[in-house]
Amino acid sequence: MANLLITGGAGFIGSHTCLVFLEAGHELIVIDNFINSSPEAIKRVVQLADAHHRLTLVEGDICVEADVEKAFTSFRRKNFLFHSSIDAVIHFAGLKAVGESRTNPLDYWGVNVNGSYTLLKVMAAHGCRTIVFSSSATLYGYPQRVPIPEDAPIAPINPYGQSKAAVEQLLADLAASETGWRIARLRYFNPVGAHPSGMIGEDPCGIPNNLFPFISQVAAGRRINLKVFGNDWPTFDGTAIRDYIHVLDLAAGHLITLETLLSEKPQMLTLNLGSGVGLSVLEVVAEFEAVCGQPIPYEIVTRRFGDAAKTVADSSLAETRIGWRTTRNLTEMCRDGWAWQSANPYGYAN
Ligand code: NAD
Ligand code: UD1
């Protein structure tokens, strides 16, 4: 059992990972400022895990040193043990909308880079040197070859991707300092789906940017139709191909990564977390229709700026290095995503 600080634990990936970590017996402090989430997610996580006494919520901002400090010290108070402290941090908190990062780069550098810097500074002050960082396949920009291995060129094409690359570099510098850091940089491909209970899931603020939440909201009657961004891509059906990964497979990847970091010598792991399976937009639409039993109306529009034709992970390193691979297929991603959206058409605001 480890004592873990989860930043951004109320968000989409964070909430599912909190659940998996609670089920594995760990004790959690979550820090979140709810800029893109709701405290209701945390309520439901502890309910699902039946673990009210093993999760403490601190409402705070990772950019504010005093807030991060509060998260570290509230853990100590809670356990009445002055020597007890946080063993590792799982760092999800950040901003993730690519389009918004272009119009507001200051926020993206501020939260993603400065927030990570502040967190790392407080960790170092407390002697906590183990961190799992949410990186992204967005680092690879327009990939030169697919499937994409971890040693592919880092060539982000937007401020969001630049901010992730900057934090990856900071973490590499810490690892190279040989001061005992244990670091994982996990490059997620396209996380989708939800917990099969339908109690937690993805609840984006405003109009969704990403395919899965958009399709789900069309199916739930919140949006009229899906705009498919281009059917003139060099793919088998003309629509772009992505590597979708069930959020619970991703959460399991964090658990195995953490166990590896804590049981081995200080090091830095850099891993792609994807399924290795490429699916087109129209394949996803067809499967979602089959699962929800209704048509998903769509229209073809022009390509979205910054999209690539095909991004698929080479995740063989994660399999050989930490023994992780995905276990859930597209049907399960659609089924679980629909269980969440149909039970909560307006997300946590229901
Ligand atoms: P999310 O927006 O659902 O979760 C992020 C959480 O961080 C939210 O709860 C938000 O309120 C919180 N947060 C944001 N700024 C904060 C701050 N300054 N202080 C404290 N809390 C703050 O996003 P997600 O999809 O769960 O993504 C989690 C992480 O994974 C992010 O770092 C994201 O960049 C990365 N990632 C996501 C995807 C994806 O497709 N969802 C893909 C690759 C990488
Ligand atoms: C996008 C971001 C990526 C980020 C990821 C997670 C861009 C260019 N890429 O990835 O940097 O890491 O989200 O936040 O923004 N699609 C439609 N209609 C829609 C939405 C999407 O056709 O309404 C298509 C897209 O063109 C793409 C596929 O569906 O081919 C998946 O899109 P999306 O879910 O946004 O993920 P990515 O573009 O892979």
The strands making up the biggest β-sheet line up spatially as 3-2-1-4-5-6-11
- Tell me the number of helical segments per DSSP (H or I, 4 or more residues long): 11
In the CATH scheme, the class would be Alpha Beta
CATH architecture label name: 3-Layer(aba) Sandwich
Task: Enter the CATH topology name.
Answer: Rossmann fold
The counted number of beta strands is 13
Q: How many structural domains can be distinguished in the coordinates?
A: 1
> What small molecules are bound in this structure?
nicotinamide-adenine-dinucleotide, uridine-diphosphate-N-acetylglucosamine
Envelope shape? globular
Rg for CA atoms:
19 Å
GO molecular function: UDP-glucose 4-epimerase activity
Cofactor: NAD(+)
Organism: Paulinella chromatophora
Keywords: Carbohydrate metabolism, Galactose metabolism, Isomerase, NAD, Plastid
Brief synopsis:
The protein is α/β, with parallel strands linked by helices. Helices cover 41% and strands 17% of the residues.
Describe the protein in words.
- The protein has 350 residues and is α/β, with parallel strands linked by helices.
- It is built from eleven helices and 13 strands.
- Helix 3 (65-79) crosses helix 5 (105-125) and helix 5 packs parallel to helix 6.
- The radius of gyration is 19 Å and the shape is globular.
- It starts with a strand and ends in a 7-residue tail after the last helix.
